[in-house]
Structures are given as C-alpha cells and as structure tokens.
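User: We ran a pulldown and think these components assemble together. Before we commit to crystallization trials, I'd like a predicted model of the whole complex to look at. Sequences follow.
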Amino acid sequence: MFRVSHKAIDLQELVDHVSDPEAGAIATFIGTTRNNNEGRKVIGLDYEAYPEMAEKELLRIGEEAKKNWPICRMAIVHRLGPVQITQASVVIAVSAGHRDAAFAACRFAIEEIKKTVPIWKKELYEGGEVWIGTQTGQPLPDR
Amino acid sequence: MKVRVKFFAILRERVGAGEITKEIEEGSTVAELWKALQQDYPKLNVPGIRLLYAVNQDYVGLDHALKEQDEIVFIPPVSGGS
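Assistant: Here's a predicted model for the assembly, 225 residues in total across the polymer chains.
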C-alpha cells in the first residue's frame, strides 16, 4: 500500500495491511501538523502532489527498504490537501521478523520521503502563507 | 513537436495553470525547454530555486532529450512528510 489520499489517514488500516505471520514487530511513524514553525504561528498545512509520480516514488522507497533490511511488508500513505493542526500528514507502517529492521526501515522511509517524493507543503500561518523549501533553498539530492 | 508540461506548487501558482502544451524543436533538451518556458512565463524565474526534472514520471538530468508527447515536470524543492 503506497498511496496519496485526500482523506484522513487510518493508522489501523496500514497496520492491518503489513500484518504478517512471520513478523515479530510492527513499527509505525506518524507525521503530524505542528502549530509552530521557525517562530511562526502555524494555522494549518496544505499538501499538493504530482500524484502518479509520488506513488511511484513511495513504491520505490518500499522496494529499497526491502533490499536493505529483512522486513516483511511496508505501507505508506501521504495526505493531500488541507491538514489541520495535530492531524496526520503521513503514516508509515513496517513489519519485520525483529524490531531492529522494523525501526530502521521506518526511519529510512520518512527520511527518503522528504528527499525524493514530489509532494509539496504550503504552510498557512498567521499573516501569510509560504511554500516550504522554496524560500530556504534547501539542498536537493543529486539524481 | 509537442510536449506536455505540468506545473505544481509555487510554479503552478506563478504560471497560473497546472498543465500546458508546448511546441518545441525536435530533440530539444529539458534545459532548452526550461529556457523557452521562462520566456513565455517570466514569473517562472524564482530567484534561488533549485529544481529537479522529471520526464514521464522518472527523474532525469537537464541534458535529457525530449520526445513527442513527453510529460515534463519541473519539480520545486519537495517537502513531504511533516
């Protein structure tokens, strides 16, 4: 399960998806919307994606994780559109025989999502809005 | 030849459209297309922006040669996750 969605993300759905008789661990990560950023009072976030490519890149991350760690299954769902404070913008679930691989693959997935998946975040804050990443000129991976 | 260009996030807002069709010379590269688009839409020139380039949903380099009906996206810095 590697997808983007305009609906609220259901953690249990991802956990059920990666459930596996050979798994001794399921690690999950939930990225949530924080009410502050760089001194700004954040009202909410608005995510936009190049959906076909975003799902393709999420799938690639899953395949790469499988090559690097002995995991059973992985699921990633990224929210699109407006996301309120405290709500989840991304959820990752990974099952593995043992916890080390589950934690490592989960960590790998969230770091990769921030580098290569074509999803953009507009921050709506008190007094304005800004596309995150564009103004700061953050370094991008060589691809 | 004709290619399709999709714009997202800050570039979509600056162009005022999510998708356009552009007539370019046979064998043009991504870099040449970007130059031509900047002439059509001067606002595309965002100071200091670092872009990635995708053709038919795969990352490519600036020297990638385009083909008829290719789908090109100029990708502003991504910020998925949280």
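The first helix of chain A runs from residue 11 to 18. That may be worth checking against your pulldown data before setting up trials.

User: Thanks, that helps.
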